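Thread title: Can someone regenerate the structure for this chain?

I was given the following input by a collaborator and told the matching structure tokens would be attached. They weren't. Posting the sequence so someone can regenerate them.
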Amino acid sequence: MAEQVMSEVGTQLPRVLIVDDSRMVRASLIKQIRDKFDVREEGDGEAGWQALLLDPTIEVVISDIGMPRLDGFGLLERIRASRLSRVNALPVLIISGEDENEARLRAQQLGATDFITKGTPRVELVARLEALAKLAQTRRELEQSREQLVRRNRGDVSVMVIEVDHYDRLCETYGHSVGQLVHRKLSKLLSAKVRKEDTIAHLAEGQFAVISPTADLDACGAFALRLRRAIETIVMTYKEHRIRVSLTVGLASAHGDDRITLEQLLQLAAQRVAEGRAMGGNRVVSDSGEVTPDNVGRFSRLAVSVDHALTQIRNGSTDEARRRLRELTQTLLPLLELIESEYRVGLPLQELGEKAQSATDLHATSTLGARTVWRT
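Best answer:
Regenerated them for you:
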């Protein structure tokens, strides 16, 4: 009876396909992950491909690069080109003998979800596989419940694909560990800011997706701008270097069309990330082009941030602060009144107040209706 229970529990573990021509490497990987995953192993890319076609229970693929018959790059190309949605959307973890930037870049270009070196510590390997298995599970559950989700929310489902600008260059310059640190910081930031009903998915290193029911593009655009602004204020120190990062975000929405699948929305959002990347990065791109604080939508305007304005000014960029000077003045008036009451230096508070009052209050109507609001 105990053996039967153990067997039933074992079948519930996420199934991982390991493709590597080295029996020793396969055995080592299996030993590290067998308590967390059900494992299938194959000795070359062609055998791995046949296993994927015949075994629908596989949720994650680990593949070596150099193999006979079909190498890891060829296997990855087949997976991403497959007409079977359960195959082409599978998370693929490429494993290499060395941390070769060229190999990593090619793997990412072909659609690898993640990349590690042989000898990666067990804790990190298991953590990455668990994240990939969760991604596969999330995609499967979302697609399965797509019809109910659209019916319940009248098709108002939006997707954001969020990418760290120049992530490969960041890893090449400072090392992969610094890139991972940036990835974790962004993951933590997203987890703190999205709503409970939203879903965060890890697409690749330095790239995430947020799936948002009941959210329109204006609301997503406003959130993306706030997120981009928040990441700009983060400064990381590595040895003698001060590292700043920026984000490019692509937006897509079903617009009430229940014929659009989640994968199609993700592809649309990813295409818009590519458009933003081509414009130089640090962009938010929607179906109508670049989203800015000036065109994001009347009800979804950015709340003014004094901290952000000061950061921009210190960095020598005053354009945004100039555009929002009246709002900044209105925000600062209570502090200026306190300063004047303490120091009596003759600040022109009345004149400042009149100028600030003349600005259109862009936030007075933001509480009307059931608008989507994220934490900031």
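The longest helix spans residues 122-144.
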